[in-house]
Amino acid sequence: MQGLTRALFHHPPVLILLAIVLVFGLSVGDLFLSGRNLANVARQVSIEAPVVFGQMVVLIAGGIDISVGSTMAMSAALAVGLQGYGTLTAVAAALLFGVFVGAVNGFLVTRCRIVPFVATLGTMSVVRGILLTYTRQESIVSQDPGFAWWGGGSLGFMPVPMLVAIVLAAVLTLLLEKTRTGRNLYAVGGNKEAAYLAAISVDRYLFLAFVISGFMAGISGVLLASRLESASVQLGTETPLLAIAAAMIGGASLLGGRGTIVGAFLGVLALGLLTNGMNLLGVHTYYQIAIRAMILIAVVAASQLMFVSGHDALLVSAIVVGAGLAAEISTQQSVTASWLLFELLRWSFGLFGVLALLWMARRTLEIPNTQSATGILYVAVLGVFIGELTGLLLSAESMYPL
Questions:
Q1: Which one of 49, 241, 288, 334 is least enclosed by Cβ atoms within 10 Å?
Q2: Domain ranges in the chain?
Q3: Strand, coil or helix: what is 354?
Q4: Between the CA of residue 154 and those of 150, 158, 161, 276, 279, what are the distances in Å?
């Protein structure tokens, strides 16, 4: 039992998944845990999984790809828009377009020495402009009924997109963990200078990471177009946020050199279950976007704070208490001294209770290194904060429906 608990503490995505299933399982009941609903979640998550895998590879190599949403949308448009030349031709063009955008990103980063965020932000806008021009801001409908099988069909009990995601996850896992290419990608992301001194071609592997990301975005675009049997300019607008958040939940770092494909899949599954649970609770889409954005902020902050000494825990906790209290005050029409005192005590006792539990967990689970314990501590603190803000958004929707 102790070994299982220790394993859970060392794998935050699993803890997050368990927490989401527990919360929505209790809130929504049998509807959330029904086979039909979980199959729907599996299909939707599988369509989004390839683009998250690509983002994970880029983050491992020390980059970031903001253009994946536009690339996915344009690939979807090509997959249905070129079906007059044959479905296979249209799908091949969509995938090649993804590879092309990835190669452009890689060229801008490795040859033009543009920061990955800026380079991919630029290509995101260019591709979005091409998409608007190509579609004329109208939806494109698929002409081939058989094309829908890739996004909506099944092989036995297994949805086709899930099978595609599993195959891609297996291939990329083997690439990253069992080949020299994978080891070099981790080395480049972990320390570019050291990789260069070790005679590793830093530019080549960073370029490869962006090409993989573009290709994966193209696959997601094809699967999404098949699922919808159409494509439109609205596709992919939230995909960069989703891909980065899922990869970060899965263990990636903005500093590079960390993360796994299995972690990326668990991350996108966690966000998929979260979105599905909020849909079942009737949470408006606008609030869902805000909640996912706050989750991304919390995960990135936790990732960075893992490198902060444990001595700063009280300062960070005080900031969290103050921010949470300010958020709650902003939703109140009138604030009394007794209410303010109650909320201050509730936040403080809640946070320091979590800190105490984590301190005991660190001792009983024999977590060896202080940075790991500190990282878990900050994840929990920020998790409480995000939980409170999520509750505020849910209550705000009931008070101010859109």
A1: 334
A2: 45-266, 310-399
A3: helix
A4: 8, 5, 8, 21, 24
